[in-house]
Amino acid sequence: MTKTLLIIHHTPSPHTQEMFEAVLAGAIDPEIEGVQVIRRPALVVSPVEMLQADGYLLGTPANLGYISGALKHAFDCAYYQLLDTTRGRPFGVYLHGNEGTEGAERGLDAITTGLGWVQAAQTVVVSGKPSKDDVEACWNLGATVAAALME
């Protein structure tokens, strides 16, 4: 039975695009079998797509110390439909920030804890231009969350 991994992202800059591409590459690695990867910009993802997914990767810049308005909007539209229905599903997060990301990390922690989601990999936080190690960490994040769905 195929599982679905939904990547919900807000990718407004070259740095977040580079991180997104690395996460996606890890998630679709040929060694990961039985996992369909769907990617949706945060402003267009539907609550139905979020309900149907078996796991999630969330990517956002930290804007003014918080998650992007786009990702917040996605959760505002779907939170109560997801509540209780998606409890226990694995997720991972990647964040890009030029200043502080603590507020964004706290915000996503509050949302995912409220939903009862289970963090499958450590959050990847990048400041400035992603280094080779940052890109590798993003790849590993995508692969780890996707592999969690194979079990």
TrEMBL record:
Pfam families per UniProt: FMN_red
Residue ranges annotated for the NADPH-dependent FMN reductase-like domain, each copy included: 50-127
InterPro entries: Flavoprotein-like_sf, FMN_Rdtase-like_dom
Signal peptide: none
A GO molecular-function descriptor: oxidoreductase activity
Protein name (Swiss-Prot/TrEMBL): Flavodoxin
Species of the source: Mycobacterium sherrisii
Lineage start: Bacteria, Bacillati, Actinomycetota, Actinomycetes, Mycobacteriales
